[in-house]
Amino acid sequence: MSVLYRMNLSGLRPSGGKKGAPKGHNGHTLKMADNPDEIKWHKPDTCLHCHYSLAEVPIESYKRRQVVDIPLPRLIFTEHRVAIKCCPNCNMKQQAAFPEKVKAPIQYGDSWNAWCAYLNSYQHLPLERISQLFEDLTGHRPSEATLLSHLEKLSIQLEPIERLIRQNLLDSKLVHADETGMRIEGKLHWLHTVCNERWTLYNIHPK
User: Fold this and answer.
1) Does residue 124 come out as left (phi exceeding 0), alpha (psi in the -120 to 50 range) or beta?
2) What is the DSSP string of 129-170?
3) Using CA atoms, how far apart are residues 113 and 130, in angstroms rounded to an integer?
4) Which among 117, 197, 128 is positioned nearest to 152, based on CA atoms?
5) Percent composition of the chain: helix, strand, coil (DSSP 3-state, to 5)
6) Does residue 31 sit within a domain?
7) Structural domain tally of the chain?
8) Among residues 19, 165, 197, 206, which is most buried (max CB within 10 A)?
9) Which domain range does residue 90 map to?
10) Residue 175 included in any domain
């Protein structure tokens, strides 16, 4: 069942007046690309005055307009094949090695993992919403357990960066600290924040 949500935008900005960004905000003008990804020609077939065929008439000049859009996302499957050869000298079969990151018969790639981390850690989407988003965009719905597993692996990879941030904060002469209560699985935890002008460290703890 599809549901249509209608937004009431009447209160955002009064009608009339100047267009563009509100006062105090820098405007962003949509600019044409010098090298567009695709060029579609629209040529006149016949002269509107005398109806002479223009099919073989060369183009003298042109005017252009550009449409900026986002392509519909889809899953891209990359198959890795390792060749097996037989040595003609000793009859021993030799097999090439798979890339180091390709460890399973089927797995998600780096871009997919990056999207998971971005949507969860930066956009703060819960796992169920991320699963739903992937299904809506690609037709494939990853399980929440799969998402959590990938996020945990990415978190482990960030441990060296976390140690760097922690050490820089320890070496700082002045830091700002704060704690905010938040619930995890229904239980009260504390989000501890320590930061200075360059570094920020977040840590969730039951106390």
Assistant:
1) left
2) HHHHHHHHHHS----HHHHHHHHHHHHHHTHHHHHHHHHHHH
3) 12
4) 117
5) 25, 15, 60
6) no
7) 1
8) 165
9) 84-157
10) no
Give me 118's structure tokens.
């971005």
In a domain, 137, yes or no: yes
Strands (E), the chain: 84-86, 93-95, 176-184, 187-195, 200-205
In a domain, 112, yes or no: yes
CA distance 133 to 151: 16
List the chain pLDDT tens, one digit each, 207 residues: 344 444 444 455 555 556 666 666 666 788 999 999 999 999 999 999 999 999 999 999 999 999 999 888 899 999 999 999 999 999 999 999 999 999 999 999 999 999 999 999 899 999 999 999 999 999 999 999 999 999 998 889 889 999 999 999 999 999 999 999 988 888 999 999 999 999 999 988 998
Residue 199 CB-density burial (10 A; 0-12 exposed, 13-18 middle, 19+ buried)? middle
C-alpha to C-alpha distance for 207 and 195, rounded to whole angstroms: 19
Contact 109, 79 (CB under 8 A): no
